[in-house]
Amino acid sequence: VQLVESGGGLVQTGGSLRLSCAVSGIVARDAIINWYRQAPGEQREMVATITDYGLTNYADSVKDRFTISRDDVNNLVFLQMNNLKPEDTAVYYCNYGFDFWGQGTQVTVSS
After folding, report:
1. What's the rounded Cα separation, in Å, for the pair 98 and 111?
2. pLDDT at residue 80 in the model
3. Residue 10: per-residue pLDDT
4. What are the E-state strand segments in 25-89?
5. Which residue in 19, 41, 63, 79 has a CA-CA distance of 20 to 30 Å to 71?
6. pLDDT digits over 29-47, tens only?
7. Rounded CA gap, 54 and 41, in Å?
8. Do the beta carbons of residue 21 and residue 78 sit within 8 Å?
9. Residue 37: left (phi > 0), alpha (psi -120 to 50), or beta?
């Protein structure tokens, strides 16, 4: 299983970014895929989840601003992030199960 994130960058407060997770070794639509993030000095926290049934779940801090979705043709999982805030600054990771993590992509939101 391999997960490769992309799409991070520097954005101003209120801006948007879309992160992508390219999934290989499994069929994303048959799996539970998560996005996590880790800010400097903080523990890694779950941001959003999409299940094999297409159900989604979000951390309270990102509800109504972030949207997780899937491209079943290309085996991709996305995280659309709108109305970004400085506290969203972190390394964002794609995750499957206990053992499989991407390398992370940095998101920095300037005030």
Report:
1. 34
2. 98
3. 98
4. 33-38, 45-50, 56-58, 66-71, 76-81
5. 63
6. 999 999 999 999 999 999 9
7. 33
8. yes
9. beta
